[in-house]
Amino acid sequence: MAKLLYQGHGSFRLQSAGGTVLYIDPFAGEGYDVPADGVLVSHEHPDHNRVELVTLKSGGRVWRAADLLKRGHYGQCEVGDIVVLTVPACNKNHPIGECVGFVLGVDGKTAYFAGDTSTTDTMPALRLEKLDYAFLPCDGIYNMDVKEAGTCAEIINAKHSVPVHMAPGRLFDEAVAAAFTGPNKLVLRPGEEIEL
Q1: Is 68 helix (H, G, I), strand (E, B) or coil?
Q2: pLDDT tens digits, 28-83
Q3: How far is 154 from 111, CA to CA, in rounded Å?
Q4: What is the number of alpha carbons within 13 Å of residue 109 lying toward its C-beta?
Q5: Which candidate, 87, 79, 45, places its Cα nearest to that of 62?
Q6: Cα–Cα distances in angstroms (integers) from residue 17 to residues 2, 3, 14, 53, 157, in the given order
Q7: Which of 3, 93, 103, 182 meets the CB 3.0–4.6 Å disulfide criterion with 85?
Q8: CA–CA separation, 186 vs 173, rounded Å?
Q9: Could you tell me the CATH superfamily of domain 3-187?
């Protein structure tokens, strides 16, 4: 069974049952001590791309939005036994041609890491994927606010809707987490690890 460590802000470490280690948007928190098979960077803002925090295994690779988004085509890759699909992520602070979200398939589970975004036209299609997890930003400054994130959670209807990226400069904000009203709400605090 895969394990997911929430490092805070929009940063995660995912480890499959088979031992593949993947970091998503490294920037915040602790837990960068496990060498990685891959790193995913949703966009090049400094709070999502501190790849120097991660030690790559031999043959490990950093996958940036520019590697997976080419001329409007959203690509995919495999990192060990983890399948990575890219999807649109955008708003007034994040141009559509420079940012992506990720849908990951690992150990029979699917998880959507929205990156930095507001509501997108492709979110209704995510509902059809019957996602196990949706990680949605809700800072209300650089991304949608907590109310809009709750609406996106309703559209997507994952088995677990998780508010993240809650406040600039902070790993977590208890008040924002409490205000998130998406269905199937799951609150993770920095340093918490769950089995998917």
Answers
A1: helix
A2: 899 999 999 999 999 999 999 999 999 999 999 999 999 999 999 999 999 999 99
A3: 16
A4: 21
A5: 79
A6: 5, 8, 10, 23, 26
A7: 103
A8: 14
A9: Ribonuclease Z/Hydroxyacylglutathione hydrolase-like (3.60.15.10)
CA–CA distance, 88 with 69 (Å, rounded to integer): 9
Burial class (CB in 10 A: 0-12, 13-18, 19+), 50: middle
Q: How far apart are CA 126 and CA 124, in angstroms?
A: 5
> Which amino acid is it at 103?
V
CA 129 to chain centre: 16
pLDDT digits (tens, 9 = 90+) for 80-139: 999 999 999 999 999 999 999 999 999 999 999 999 999 999 999 999 999 999 999 999
CB atoms within 10 A of CB 39: 23
User: Length of the chain, please?
Assistant: 196
Tokens 């907590």: give the residue. 146
* Residues with Cβ within 8 Å of residue 136, at least 6 apart in sequence: 114, 144, 149, 152, 153, 161, 162, 163, 164, 182
The beta-strand segments (E) located in 42-171 are 56-64, 69-70, 73-74, 76-79, 82-88, 100-106, 109-113, 133-137, 160-164
Amino acid making up residue 70: K
Task: Dig out the tokens for 144 from the structure.
Answer: 């949608």
Cα separation, 113 vs 95, in Å, equals 17
How far, rounded to the nearest angstrom, does the alpha carbon of residue 21 sit from its chain's CA centroid? Answer: 15
